[in-house]
Prior knowledge:
Layout: E1 2-7, H1 11-17, H2 24-47, H3 50-79, E2 88-94, E3 97-102, E4 110-116, E5 119-124, E6 138-144, E7 150-155, E8 163-168, E9 178-182, H4 188-205
Parallel strand pairs: 3-8
Antiparallel strand pairs: 1-2, 2-6, 3-4, 4-5, 5-9, 6-7
Amino acid sequence: MITTYHRAANDLDIKALTPEGGSLGRNLATVSFPVAAIAFGAVYAKWRSLRTASVIAAGLFLASLLSNIRFFRNVKRRETLKKEANAVEVFEVSASSVLDLEPLGDNAPAYCFFVGDGKALLLVGQWLLEYDSFPAESFRFHRWADTKEPIRIEVIGRPLDATPSTVGLRPNHRFGKMEAFDATPATLQDDLDRSLCKLTERISAR
């Protein structure tokens, strides 16, 4: 069974963006500057050119700085969503079984949960490895309503062993980190082909 509802963002959602309590200054001091310094040393050691080493190190630092600024602007913007009632979309899931599908490239793991009434939920990506007690027989999947990007998984039931499957994702499949579709265990490959290829057609038609 899947129950879906919306809510405002909360402190746990914001914390999930920066799980280690990062800040702009900390990231620059602990990551950006050391990487630039190492690059400077490596380039200078190879070419003995202060100018070349400085240009490459400065470029790396600037790229990291801009990336961090964009990231923390997004964090700040998300904090304002605590006042918006529909900012976060929540899927409350109860599953009878889960298959560990054959992944496509680095899209692993790929879990397919069967939730009753001929419905299935596909979760894909290395971000799932952050959860030690996952997959589980029941959980809440939280994502941003505007971008559909996952925020976090809240496990509320017992761990559920994922059964290895020969069914897999294919190059012509187009999917996000979560897809809900009609499926049964016996026809899963056909169900995936039908649902994820339809998604391809919809994207191409836009």
